[in-house]
Known about the structure:
alpha/beta, six-stranded mixed sheet
Amino acid sequence: MSALLEIRGLRGGYGQVEVLRGVDLTVQAGETVALLGSNGAGKSTLNNVVCGIYPAWAGTVHFDGKDLSRAHYREVVKAGLIQVPEGRKVFPNLTVLENLELGSFTRARERRAANLDKVFAIFPRLKERLAQLAGTMSGGEQQMLAIGRGLMAEPRLLILDEPSLGLSPLLVDEMFGLIRQLREGGLAVLLVEQNVGQSLEIADRAYVMENGAIRFSGTPDELLGSDELRRAYLGL
């Protein structure tokens, strides 16, 4: 069976600086895959190239059998490959409701009302703050809003880029509980994180990235079973 997301030999970067050096990665339908690595490993660059925000220099990206290697980011969104970016990137001067509605601008607009209800079922706090400006919300609330905005597009696969970054330990636990809930609902998730321990607790498989390349991949048990890998790459 072909993977929902299949990345082969992907290369890319900024200007003359190569960041991605032949990345291979797959995500199956309904699978949660963790992409681990330190700052500067190339994780966010990979996300942005896969999602069409930056061009691929070489290699291929296939999503649900469709070649998106050179696709415009709007085509990527239309296909159902949705990224919740690092740093949340909510629109601070727009309300919660306006931010959520923008999530369905390109995809699933005709089901906006039904999807709002689904988002509110997951994030009751957002429903309580519909008229609040996003820029006045706490970091945890903005992260909920960013994920809710992504869900408004009815993703086939949701890329979560550092969703726990900058959150308190209590909110980190809440965030990983939410990701577990999305997984149990059958949504495919590519979880890009530095929080190794909690990521491996919920992932079906994991990749470890270093200097723009995949160094290790396997199940959480396989990664945690290697003393060398745990010390050198996982910080455990």
